[in-house]
Specification:
The protein is mainly alpha-helical. The chain is 55% helix and 0% strand. It has six helices and no strands.
């Protein structure tokens, strides 16, 4: 919920013109409608069979990671609870690192 609120708040702001490599506009609009700011949308569709082929070849790294297994084990044994806010997540991260050290 807090991340959704942050996203909404962030997207109410306008990125102004800059002499650097940034486009002006609202973040969501720049992402979903780059053509509105004379930018190029580099997204393209792929055939469904190619998508399914890639699912067989590409695996999520974290599921096979020893770090993922270890910290999941620490999380479970430590009786930690999933965070509800970014501040809780940061506190949890620090606590788990303390256990790991």
């Amino acid at each position: 919920k807090e991340l959704d609120e942050l996203q909404h708040h962030w997207n109410t702001h306008y990125i102004r013109r800059s002499r650097h490599d940034t486009l002006p506009g609202r973040p969501d609009e720049l992402y979903f409608l780059p053509e509105n700011e004379n930018a190029v949308n580099h997204a393209h569709t792929i055939e469904e069979d190619k998508y399914h082929d890639m699912l067989n070849y590409c695996h999520e790294y974290h599921k096979e990671s020893l770090y993922y297994e270890y910290f999941t084990h620490v999380f479970t044994l430590g009786g930690f609870e999933s965070p509800n806010t970014w501040n809780d997540a940061l506190t949890l991260y620090r606590e788990i690192l303390g256990v790991a050290e």
